[in-house]
Amino acid sequence: MRPGLVANKLLRKRLGSNRDEESLLEIQSSIQHFIPNEVSNDQKDTHKYKIFVSTWNVGGVAPPDDLNLEDCLDTCNNPCDIYVLGFQETVPLNAGNVLVPEKSRISMKWNSLIRSALNKNVPPSTKNQDLKVGEKQKVYPVKDGDSETSIPQDFKCVISKQMVGIFMSVWVRGDLQRYIQHPSVSCIGCGIMGFLGNKGSVSIRFCLHETSFCFVCTHLASGGKEGDEMHRNSDAADILSRTRFPRCPSLHLPRKILDHDRVIWLGDLNYRISMPEDTTRWLVEKQDWDIILENDQLKVELSEGRVFEGWNEGIIEFAPTYKYYRNSDKYYGCDKGKKGEKRRPPAWCDRILWHGKGLKQKRYTRGESRLSDHRPVRAVFTAEVEIIKNLNAFKNFLVSDRFNSVETHLDIFPSNDCLCNGRLSLHI
Q1: The dihedral formed by the CA atoms of 31, 34, 40 and 43, expressed in degrees to the nearest 10
Q2: What is the pLDDT of residue 126?
Q3: Are strands 44-57 and 166-173 parallel, antiparallel or unpaired?
Q4: 337 and 230 within one domain
């Protein structure tokens, strides 16, 4: 956003006197000397933050009131700065639900459970603390290991979105919330008739300081027959080509998924194992993951360049996450005596991928909740984030004696969070 437009919007909204209006043009012309349109690299620092990402197909089962997400989130042993949780099949994928994109009751219940798990160990004294005007906000970057923050922080939901059964929710530390800018959502349906939301994606983007992030939660085409992987490839390509975030003429914000600085793709990708079922089950019992993964459809499609070109996935060292009997550790179809039971060989349907520089995966594991026929999958990343070193000249300009009457109507910038991607962007 051009500085003159920011000043105009900010002052006209907050001020009303003729005297202040007369100062506006002078401010608009003078402000250009303090805020450049672009910020050079030598004016930026790089901090690291820890991001927790999880994906879980909950099989159309509503979460019980006593569902404990603490183990899934691993908040005690591995606290992070940002939590991104993606779900699939939060509602049964029947005809009635497919025609209703969003059921707020379900998403509110999941958010309530997430909030309880993230904030269980937060001391009351740290909750809902708002900074006074002019008070400097602390920044807690992380090392390559654990977070430097020793006191648990209150977590807040900055954005969440449901499309039929796909639901994604983003949570950040309360003290980090003000640095999250320009959050927005884009939903793509790839299901029935090629556009309904029983399959597809919910994508969320935002800027953290000067770095843009995009998270894509997906549920791709199902099916265990030979050739079904091509439908999944097509869904992924469709999501990449059709996803567009809202245009903002005054800001150069990325609109496509791959235009963002840091991109993470999560979800039930539905890729199966291209091996005879009996062989797959035997190798799973032996826990010989390497041989099975050589026949994993996603690994094969990636290596052949037919999907997710340039994307990365961590080393899989955990058992296949699909398909289990509910409330059991047994894979579906292992009881051959059951009549009318469809055979579903084990597979790693639930995956997390990433694209772009500045992301380093630290963990890639699965949870053990028995709520659904899938096990949740989780990853922890260290993300590099660019931060403007200082804007002291601009701050001093606003609080100078010359414009003292203007300053009394402005929220003094608590930190260097008023630029995103080298563009001025103030909180109004």
Answers
A1: -140
A2: 54
A3: unpaired
A4: yes
Whether cis (ω within 30° of 0) applies to the bond prior to 323 is yes
Amino acid at 57: N
Most distant CA pair in the chain, distance:
87
Contact 269, 228 (CB under 8 A): no
pTM of the prediction? 0.80
pLDDT at 39: 60
350 and 407: one domain?
A: no
Residues with Cβ within 8 Å of residue 260, at least 6 apart in sequence: 205, 212, 213, 214, 254, 356
296 conformational bin, left if phi > 0, alpha if psi -120 to 50, beta if neither: beta
- 127 within domain boundaries: no
Note whether 378 and 395 are same-domain residues. Answer: no
Give the DSSP letter of residue 217.
E
282 and 412 both lie in a single domain: no
Domain count, the chain: 2
- Please tell me whether residues 274 and 418 are part of one structural domain: no
For the chain (length 428 residues), average pLDDT per consecutive 10? 45 46 48 51 86 98 92 85 98 88 88 94 59 38 43 86 97 96 97 92 97 98 95 98 90 94 98 96 96 97 96 98 95 71 88 96 96 97 91 49 41 39 40
pLDDT for the residue numbered 389: 78
**What is the span of the domain harbouring residue 297?**
45-120+137-387
Instruction: Please check whether residues 238 and 381 belong to one and the same domain.
Output: yes
pLDDT of residue 235: 98
* Region class of 422: left (phi > 0), else alpha (psi between -120 and 50), else beta: left
Distances (CA, A) of 36 to 48, 373, 422: 25, 54, 8
pLDDT for the residue 293: 97
Element at 156 (helix H, strand E): strand 155-163
Residues 146 and 63 grouped into a single domain: yes
As given in the structure block, the two tokens for residue 36 are: 């450049």
Task: Tell me the C-alpha distance between 144 and 228, whole Å.
Answer: 40
